[in-house]
Amino acid sequence: MKHTVSRTLPRVLRRRDACLCLAAVLVSGFGTSALWLVAGVWVKDLTGSDGLAALCLLALWAPTAAGPVLGALADTVRRGPLLISLHLLPAALLPVLTAVDSPGRVWLVFAVLFVYGAVGVVQDAAESALVAGAVPASLLGEFNGLRMTVSEGLKLVAPPAGAVLYGAYGADAVVLLDAASFVLAAGLYACLRAPEPPPALGERVRIAEGARHLWRHPRLRPLVLAGGATMLCAGVNGAALYAVIDALGHAPAYAGVLYAVQGAGSVVAGLLAGPALRRLGAHRLAGYGIAVTAVAAGLRAVPSDAVALLCSAAIGAGLPCVLIAAFTAVQRETPDALLGRTAATAHTLVLAPNAVGLAVGAALVEAVDVAVLLAVLGVVWAASAALPRQSAASPSRTADRSSSDANPA
């Protein structure tokens, strides 16, 4: 496995556009990771409410419900210029948060995070489609794994750095850092040379085509359903974070430590996901990832720092397996003209349940003992590990292993 990783990653990194995309993810992701941790801590400090702190993530994830509509933009305009504009917009909007200085203005945090999330939906769709044309289908699994490593690996540094910056200079400093990171990422996207076919302007009203493609595809449908079930449970798990920290006897800023450990697990998973996808197939890899996260979520009910850190690492390792398996399959097996809508619809079906889970979790965490909540969650989550194999034919492993060559995006 290590030999396979060392052989495939240089092939990805030799591609100029792939490196630029990864650099843009690194730059903007640093600011984003710092902000979404600080936003929860900030709201917790202003209001004293665990539920309102969890709603910061809900505001950020809620726009994924409109993914099929928002993702159509990525099929109707050129994706490179679209990505540049979509990074400049939040850069201009984020400074509004410097006006938040009391509980009465916390609504501004939720409003800005909602717009931030909507922009992110279109960004993800445009980037998925652009990368599918710039990176050979045989390397998409490795690229997506490396992208996940870069993005999630930022949890090693960005949340603690954001927490330190927040403690030293307040939330305004983190907000302005995030805005600057978006400006730099826009510059990196401006340097892309990836070839783009003319936008399919005549397709812009056929928003449902992405959903139809996913539903009719025998391998994509079970993967997307499994991803949605996983992120529903992950939302409930995430909403319980500050209650877990309270049970451990730490301040809210301890969330930065747990996110950093989770990032370490994701770094390892991202590096190994591409070769694992080639060996196991998408359905089996997703099933293993679900099983790992389910066990880890249930064990978080144990009020121990060591257990909490171990579970964070396991969740960080398990979640990327499910997401990389599903989204790489979508890129490989979707025609370019449909890829923006299909990728956004897949993101909606996989990620929107996270917002539902956060909302449910935010309510439950105020009414149910956190140990009971997490124990039940672990059992429910484990049951969803069977979903990737639903309607997946016995040759699915072979199909997943060969689709990188037989089904170019």
Question: Key terms for this structure?
Answer:
409 residues; mainly alpha; disordered C terminus
Describe the overall structure.
The chain has 409 residues and is mainly α. The chain has helices at residues 2-13, 16-47, 50-61, 67-70, 73-76, 79-93, 106-134, 140-153, 158-169, 171-190, 209-216, 220-239, 241-248, 255-280, 282-299, 305-332, 336-367, 370-383, 396-406. It is globular, with a radius of gyration of 20 Å. The two termini are 25 Å apart.
Report the portion of residues in β strands.
under 5%
Q: What Rg do the Cα atoms give?
A: 20 Å
Number of helices: 19
The termini sit apart by 25 Å
Number of strands: 0
Spans with pLDDT under 50 lasting ≥5 residues? 391-409
Shape: globular
What's the overall average pLDDT, rounded?
Answer: 82
Q: Which structural class fits the helix and strand makeup? A: mainly alpha
* N-to-C SSE string, H for helix and E for strand: HHHHHHHHHHHHHHHHHHH
